[in-house]
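Supplementary Methods, section 5.1.

A reviewer requested that the exact input to the structure prediction be made available. We therefore reproduce it here, unchanged from the version used in the analyses.
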Amino acid sequence: MATLKALKIRIGSVSSSEKITGAMKMISSAKVHKSEQALRRLTPYQRQIRSIMAHILATDTEFNSVLIQSRDVKRICVVVYGTDDGLCGAYNINIFKHLLVELNSLRERYGSDVEIELLPVGRKLHKPCQHLQNARLKVSIPEGVDSKMEGRAVDAFTHRLREGFTDGSYDLVEVVHMQYFSMSRQRPKVEQLFPVTEEAIQGPMSERKMEQDNKLYIFEPDANTIFNEVLPMFVLSTMQEVTIQNQASEQAARVMAMQSANDNAKKLLDELQLEYNKLRQQSITTELLDIIGGQVKR
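The structure derived from this sequence is encoded token-by-token as follows.
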């Protein structure tokens, strides 16, 4: 009977776990859809900025923005996006592995003496990144920044990175994050934030819809001034997209992790229920045999 009681307790515990993982899966699914909606709202804004800047770049004007100026790379800032919460499978492990690959790639391109400052976003990456710290790699935890930040926090963080590039603290700024494609598909990606490249402004080839006909534009006050006003907006929209994609990818990974946990709980529950039924049947059979044996003796 003690075994039956223990099994009953385990069945109740697994059943509760199944309900909890199911609820967490539903919550994460709702958060993924919310992030997808935010990405859809951001896309037209980005396309419009890219269109404006592409038309400006098509002119014969010379641009002198500090944000597009390349220089000898001696100091690099790498922002890596992780999570603040767990229960999302191997999400942070995959990002950290990609970060290691990118750090090795940077040293191959710019030399082993290049100085790198690593800015981990998300508590789950703080400790692993700190283990990488050495004479040529500094790890700094950015204040007021986390994986759940929105709006003004993203704006302030982007402004700090831009100031670091413009004042010469960094010669190159990159962002390592998870790119969101669908609920079951996310891939690590490296985004060069500064200096801003022409390829980044124009976007992927699949999204380039430059008009082929020649159009005349009148820029007021002038093309270079407009370019310098729009460029920071483009950088900010890029960081907003990176942040939202990271949030969507995190929740999608959590959905898959909760689905896997839910399936395992159901499988374990079925096995425990079968074992419980067998023991219960065995106990009933033993009791019946004892009763029958007592009647025969009489």
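Strands lie at 75-81, 115-121, 137-139, 172-182, 185-194. These observations are discussed further in the main text.
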